User: Fold ATP synthase subunit f, mitochondrial from Drosophila albomicans.
Amino acid sequence: MAFGDYPAEYNPKVHGPYDPARYYGKADVPFGQVKLGELGAWFSRRNKTPNAIGGAISRAWWRWQHKYVFPKRAGIAPFFQITVASMTFFYLINYTKLKHHRNYKYH
Assistant:
């Protein structure tokens, strides 16, 4: 699969129009329904290649877009979510500099 191609599992005759938020591979048990004893086997069945991880991130991005950004009457939620995510990200990357400015009690 090259950049911009459809996934190998996608068949337009079976699946209809392509949806970037959908996984076209073999269906498996959802993570929320996995029992603790089966967790290791469930993780071993995951595809851990860089392409698969990139595809999972891309599907998550498209699902978020379809849910919060693309509706006709989209609210202000995506702007707050991006703001909180960027605040958290910049706090984490600057944590080593910020921890030196803590206020300590000396008595």
Summary: The longest helix spans residues 50-69. Helices lie at 12-15, 39-44, 50-69, 77-93, 95-98.
